[in-house]
Amino acid sequence: MSSIEIAEAIDGKPAAPPARPASRVGLRLAGFLLPVILAIIWEILVRAGLANGRLMPPPSVVGKTLWQLAVSGELWTHALATLWRVAAGFGIGAAVGTALGALTGALPLARGLLDPTLQALRAIPSIAWVPLFILWFGIFEASKVALIAVGVFFPVYLGVAAAILSIDRKIVEVGRVFRLSRLAMVRRVLLPAILPDWFTALRGGLGLGFMFVVAAEIMGASEGLGYLLVDGQQLGRPDTIIAAIIAFAVLGKLADGLLLAITRPFLAWQDTARDRL
Amino acid sequence: MLTFDHLSKTYAAGTRALSGIDISVAAGEILALVGGSGCGKTTLLRLVAGLDRPSEGRILLDDAIITEPRADVGVIFQEPRLLPWLSVADNAGFGLSHLPAAERNRLVTGALARVGLAGYEARWPRELSGGQQQRVAIARALVTRPKLLLMDEPFSALDATTRASLHGHLLALWEESRPTVVMVTHDVEEAVTLADRIVVMQPRPGRIFDELDNPLTRPRDRLSPAFEAIKREALRTLDRSLTDSEPRQHKAAESAGMWW
Ligand SMILES: Nc1ncnc2c1ncn2[C@@H]1O[C@H](COP(=O)(O)OP(=O)(O)OP(=O)(O)O)[C@@H](O)[C@H]1O
Ligand SMILES: [Mg+2]
Known about the structure:
- The structure holds two protein chains of two kinds.
- Chain A is mainly α.
- Chain A has one domain (about 75-265): MetI-like fold (Orthogonal Bundle).
- Chain A is built from eleven helices and no strands.
- In chain A, about 30% of the residues are buried.
- The model of chain A is unreliable at about 1-20 (pLDDT under 50).
- By secondary structure, chain B is α/β, with parallel strands linked by helices.
- Helices cover about 35% and strands about 25% of the residues of chain B.
- A six-stranded mixed beta sheet of chain B has the order 6-7-8-3-9-10, sandwiched between helices. In chain B, strands 2-1-4-5 form a four-stranded antiparallel beta sheet, with helices on one face.
- In chain B, strand 7, helix 5 (about 160-175) and strand 8 form a beta-alpha-beta unit.
- Mean pLDDT of chain B is about 90; it is low at about 245-260.
- Classes of the chains: A mainly alpha, B alpha/beta.
- The interface of A and B includes residues 177 and 192 of A.
């Protein structure tokens, strides 16, 4: 960070308005204002007897449910089950997506052979696979992980293939001028060049992974946050449902933040405006 | 010695970028290519660099035909072409990966200092101005001590002062190992400052119009009458090359090539 600031100081460029930390934090907090006010209003309305809190429980009730779930340990069991599924599906989907994306991006023959089929498969709404996966993999973990993997696969595959196809010829020529071997070209030029797009694709894949884990768990599971959703519905407990939704949101955000934190140091060189996202 | 032997290049679209080029460049000579836009100067350099193949003819460097990039040929492109994910030092040392780190650092530090970028080693390319980036590219090409150096308008993005100082740096570096240099420029004064010989090219199809020798001894005084005389002669030749163009028998093919 400091070197950038020094550079700006030297160049005297009025680069990006110097967003003061204080105002930036303030801006972030402003985002919480609306939901918090709405929650407080709802809480007051329900307490005053002006609104019925049965279908849309007030924050205090949801908070209590969440607390009870946490204390009894149930919340962690479910969250862990969900996380495990997402991790497994994401791992598989991202690995296969990256490999096939690299293959079709790098070899025209592979592109001609594989890409049309994959594009056709992509047109199928992934949830449509569920019955088939259940027949193939049974109703337990494997079919859920498979569904999540399919969801993760496509954005990663498309992102990697597109990234490879859009690598700048001019930069590849620098590698050629210095006579890099094929392997060195991949390691020193091609891989770093696609890194930003690859990370973006992984993030997109992770997001879809969380979407598909909900679908997978709603269709039948004995644990997991998705199961908690269904459970709340069957028991007529909207507070449980909202507690599960909140847990999903927190989990998804944390996973995304983790991925971002892991990948950001590799992209310090980037010259983009999407610095803070 | 570098020899172009009846060199022609026709692009896939049918553009005849070069046709029947014959030049010999002595070892250690600095040759400047000048000419209007689109007369095949970049194409010629790319062929020597081994980045493209000629359609006809061949290029010999010390009796070996050039078909692919060679370790002893350095290239400075029209743009800096730095790798944005490498620091300035790593960019400058890109061609030195076979050397131990200490040796590489020593060479890179020296090369960067000579192009006026001492202390910039740890910066990212995005933190440099366009001219500074081009200087890193110059350091990157020179630090490997090539036998033949190819430069495509390397200074065209720089202001006059930086350009003049880089001419000095370049000549100093050239004195050290006396590589053969083929440089493209559209600045006649630059050509007269640096080159031993100036080749004027003409487009459609790209060919040699005329060449003139520059016998001035270095260092050259830009204000001397002799310098002025050669510069004027070069300018006149360039003007003639732009006005009396021969019949444009390849007009159709050319316009097809220009389209994109
Ligand atoms: N990759 C290509 N494919 C097809 N035609 C090309 C290609 N590159 C260059 N040309 C054509 O070849 C001719 C010579 O181009 P070249 O880039 O060598 O010119 P130049 O002398 O370097 O021009 P400038 O001074 O503008 O850089 C032009 O007519 C151009 O349209
Ligand atoms: Mg050019």
